[in-house]
Amino acid sequence: MVVQDSVDAPGVPLEPFLHQVGGHLSVMRYDEHTVCKPLISREQRFYESLPLAMKRFTPQYKGIITVHLRKDSHGRLSLVANPLTENRGPFTVSTESAAVAIWQTLQQTAGGGALPLAQWQHPQRAHSLKESPAMALLRSELHLKAQVPSLVEDANGNLMEKGSFNPWGLHCHQAHLSRLCAEYSENKRHRFLLLENVVSQYKHPCILDLKMGTRQHGDDASEEKKARHMRKCAQSTSARLGMRICGMQVYQTDKKHFLCKDKYYGRKLSVEGFRQELYQFLHDGTRFRTELLEPIQHQLQALLSVIRSQSSYRFYSSSLLIIYDGQETPQMPHGSNAIKVDVRMIDFAHTTYKGSWNEHTTYDGPDPGYIFGLENLIQILQGIHEGQ
Ligand SMILES: Nc1ncnc2c1ncn2[C@@H]1O[C@H](COP(=O)(O)OP(=O)(O)O)[C@@H](O)[C@H]1O
Ligand SMILES: [Mg+2]
Asked: What are the backbone angles phi and psi of residue 319, rounded to the nearest 5°?
């Protein structure tokens, strides 16, 4: 649907992406096979000079759009994309979807567009976002969990269950919109990156977001930021395993909903806790999905050889997504070798390599932290496999 925006340019409302398991800013759904996220030049440059060997392990890069904030007559906030002419064809975004219905319901329950949603589950998380003390107070008194009605109706009267989407994405979306609203005028154009939605092929996408490596700060980080990141690595499995859980959703076939875990949960895990969580990620509520182990291990091995062949790259703060379908289809019974899994690298906002623009620091050889993480992941999965 094409609508007029506040500055009389045609635009398309973006939908919150209901399968965002990690990250801090809002990832939006652009169309069925495309998501978009706020543009960071470093990430854009990475995608534009992506080595061929890495392409099968990253989302396809689809270009750039500009986006602006819009407030409707009820004070509800949304983001509207202004397509650039060089981008491909007509938009297929619908405003009638369940995602929009959920988002509007949340904004209404929160009492208006500019009101930030609560931190869900743990109100003490409020300090992690830049906000006024008044907002923080408000935030701490509300709980997203309580605000999401157990059933949300979309424009076609279809009911969508609370457990069918990940509250983390809505949390990021609300915080991001509130911040944009506070800091910029509605006419401000924000640039967003268009990326292939790597979970669009899955009916019930089970997603594990692993932040890879033993170091997360980019070379351009301030001393304060560097110290903060180093502390988080030292206190989490990042130091010992070269990875930590940054978010997860796993479909529970018995309860017909997603079990969701966020980055705060992942940061607290011990090595044994990490192993158990990995096991949980492959458990559908009724049984452990043994048949997924081999395809995942196979893809991780293939990724490992690609990473070993990439000299000078350092994927600081990048994530690895492991994806499979939570609901086996009748055509694909377990035990068949046609099981679809995906292993995809995302988030290159702090990736550095020789030849990248304006680098003061460069590195030789492949990324040791990433390789350490991948080798450990393969080994832990092997351990789970042997225990089966
Ligand atoms: N191309 C994509 N396809 C599907 N989901 C994605 C894609 N990119 C990001 N996501 C989802 O959004 C989350 C945050 O993405 P990320 O790029 O790490 O954002 P940030 O820069 O805010 O950390 C991921 O955990 C994942 O669930
Ligand atoms: Mg990220």
From this structure: -115, 155
